[in-house]
Design a protein that fits this description.
- The chain has one domain.
- Helices cover 65% and strands 8% of the residues.
- It has five helices and two strands, in the order ααββααα.
């Protein structure tokens, strides 16, 4: 069960994008929801927009996971780095991944890596006393 907690959830967003892009089940640019606001403006959300929105929710969960202390956190950070590297390579080399939506997914993965390491370092810093008169 702990190993499952170490799995970065951003991999689900990358996998969902790949599933949608390669299976052509729904075009990522096709309208998923259309709404008319009280101002008269029409808002059109695409499947890609929805994927990025879900990715933001997943990023929030990943940030909460980063605040944990333990050996599973180290595994989580390492796997998050691998997901980011794989997504970046896919963005650069795979034609179907060369979209603005996938670029945002890559940015989500990067923020997951950077924030995860930052939060963990800050949390660990509070747990370890460097010295009595230290300003850290």
């Amino acid at each position: 069960m702990r190993a499952l907690l170490a799995l970065p959830l951003t991999i689900l967003i990358v996998a969902a994008y790949n599933f949608m892009a390669f299976q052509n089940l729904a075009s990522l640019e096709a309208a998923a929801v259309t709404a008319t606001l009280m101002s008269g403006a029409t808002v059109v959300l695409t499947w890609g927009d929805g994927l990025v929105a879900v990715g933001l929710l997943v990023l929030f969960i990943e940030l909460l996971k980063a605040a944990r202390v333990g050996s599973a956190t180290i595994l989580d950070h390492g796997l998050s780095m691998l997901v980011f590297i794989a997504a970046l390579v896919e963005f650069l080399l795979v034609r179907e991944a060369g979209t603005a939506t996938f670029a945002l997914v890559v940015v989500l993965c990067l923020i997951d890596v950077m924030a995860g390491f930052s939060v963990s370092i800050r949390t660990a810093h509070r747990d370890v006393s460097v010295g009595r008169g230290s300003d850290f």
